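User: Design a sequence. Structure:
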């Protein structure tokens, strides 16, 4: 671990969080409800940073981010899915009341963001419902998008701290090839529904050797931004299935991705986050910035 003072660690983390929230505020033009939520969130994040700093002085490092996999169940069987391989079926699941208490504990410790994953999180709508009870934390929910129907959006109306993040692989050919025939068209309908509902939403792009140039192209990014998306996660593919090593990014494409993400930030009214990579800019090496919580009964 680098020789760096604990107070410097917390300052670096807080600076990264503040930058992310202010950037989100900048790109939320046209969505006044979410902008008002972000203005409140600036104060909440300042308080969270203060809590993390106080715990750091006591020798307890509190990461700014959590990743919570709330279920292993899913309504799709995508190629190379880590969750299907990891859980191997349906494991015991924590009840919604326990997830809520965990998130409240995280809030009290100073956690700022909780990334909700699965499986497909929206198969457990009662757990997702609990997000409304922890408004101080921002919850990006990574979803295949197929369960975000009108009745679901109506049920979650006003829950500004929940950000749906739709999984795409590129255009129709790339998405349907991995996720199943007809999925892309259904996701276009989901995105139209989110935009009509004035939801702040994002997309998650698994970047591979095969689609890297597509998902970073102006044609693709421009089309998704025009549809109303204001948040992009670029996640480098990690092989979990035999015979897929050729999809791992080569060093030249990994370099291209880093450069391209920086260019996109200057060119489009949206947030662009790359994993891995951006966390290294927010935190010094050797110091955890995120903790993970798996669904186990």
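Assistant: Done.
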């Amino acid at each position: 671990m680098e020789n760096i003072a604990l107070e410097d660690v917390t300052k670096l983390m807080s600076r990264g969080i503040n930058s992310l929230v202010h950037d989100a505020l900048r790109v939320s033009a046209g969505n006044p409800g979410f902008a008002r939520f972000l203005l409140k969130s600036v104060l909440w994040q300042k308080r969270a940073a203060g809590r993390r700093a106080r715990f750091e002085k006591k020798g307890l490092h509190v990461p700014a981010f959590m990743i919570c996999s709330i279920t292993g169940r899913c309504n799709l069987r995508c190629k190379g899915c880590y969750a299907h391989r990891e859980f191997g079926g349906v494991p015991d699941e924590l009840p919604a009341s326990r997830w809520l208490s965990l998130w409240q504990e995280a809030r009290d410790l100073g956690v700022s963001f909780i990334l909700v994953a699965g499986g497909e999180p929206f198969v457990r709508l009662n757990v997702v419902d609990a997000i409304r009870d922890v408004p101080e934390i921002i919850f990006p929910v990574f979803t295949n998008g197929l369960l975000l129907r009108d009745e679901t959006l109506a049920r979650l109306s006003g829950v500004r701290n929940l950000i749906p993040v739709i999984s795409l692989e590129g255009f129709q050919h790339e998405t349907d090839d991995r996720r199943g025939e007809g999925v892309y068209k259904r996701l276009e309908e989901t995105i139209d529904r989110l935009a009509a509902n004035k939801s702040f939403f994002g997309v998650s792009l698994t970047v591979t050797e095969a689609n890297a140039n597509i998902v970073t192209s102006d044609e693709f990014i421009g089309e998704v931004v025009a549809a109303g998306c204001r948040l992009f996660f670029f996640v480098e593919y990690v092989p979990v299935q035999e015979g897929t090593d050729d999809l791992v990014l080569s060093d030249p494409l990994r370099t291209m991705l880093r450069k391209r993400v920086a260019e996109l930030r200057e060119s489009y009214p949206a947030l662009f986050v790359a994993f891995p990579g951006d966390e290294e800019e927010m935190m010094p090496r050797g110091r955890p910035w995120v903790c993970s919580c798996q669904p186990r009964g």
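The longest helix spans residues 32-57. The chain has twelve helices and eight strands.
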